[in-house]
């Protein structure tokens, strides 16, 4: 739990550095905070101090960390009137939070935890790379597209699972069509055919 709180404080410091324009330093602090967060779970298991409350607080504070980093970037971009990057930042944050929410809500309803490409560690990696390289705009583009595609992929996975669990007479037609289409593409690829599109 101490590492989780430490990560949150580090991200708060990184947000301040971002607002002041010290992007490479902020990237280093964000990476350090991510390492603290990654070590928190294994350390709790190693010391036999893991709990449902600890997992809940860890996940919740992760969202606050994302908001803090977003706020720091928002103030930085606003002060430099980089309007297109500001729009990308808002789209990225909405995609990131939606991606996490879909998982939480799906698990609360009894669905499986469906994977997605742009998990938190990858989002942090892309952002830090953008801060260190000076390619913040490119990083925001990648993050915006990646998070929304991942959110849609996760949402589709939950919808297909719900369709499979539903009684046959209540199932809508479109998931069946989608499932058959993906099955045909998989068989086609396994047979050595070249996928279309």
Helix and strand composition category: mainly alpha
Q: Which percent range fits the helix content?
A: over 70%
The number of distinct structural domains comes to: 2
Radius of gyration: 20 Å
By oligomeric state, this entry counts as: single chain
Q: What is the global morphology?
A: flat
State the end-to-end distance. Answer: 47 Å
Main β sheet profile: none
* Number of helices, counting only DSSP H or I runs of 4 residues or more: 7
* Low-pLDDT ranges: 193-197
Order of helices and strands: HHHHHHH
Average pLDDT level:
83
The count of DSSP E runs of length 2 or more, i.e. the number of strands, is: 0
Give the amount of beta strand, in percent: under 5%
Task: Please tell me about this protein's structure.
The longest helix has 30 residues, at 136-165. The radius of gyration is 20 Å and the shape is flat. It is an all-alpha fold and 197 residues long. Helices cover 81% and strands 0% of the residues. Helix 2 packs antiparallel against helix 5 (120-133) and helix 5 (120-133) packs antiparallel against helix 6 (136-165). It contains 7 helices and no strands. It has 2 domains: 1-81, Up-down Bundle (Four Helix Bundle (Hemerythrin (Met), subunit A)), CATH 1.20.120; 83-192.
Any chance you could write out the topology, listing elements then pairs?
Blueprint lengths: L1 H19 L2 H24 L5 H28 L3 H26 L11 H14 L2 H30 L7 H18 L7
Helix pairs in contact: 1-2, 1-3, 2-5, 3-4, 4-6, 5-6
Give a brief outline of the structure.
With 197 residues, the protein is an all-alpha fold. It is built from seven helices and no strands. Helices cover 81% and strands 0% of the residues.
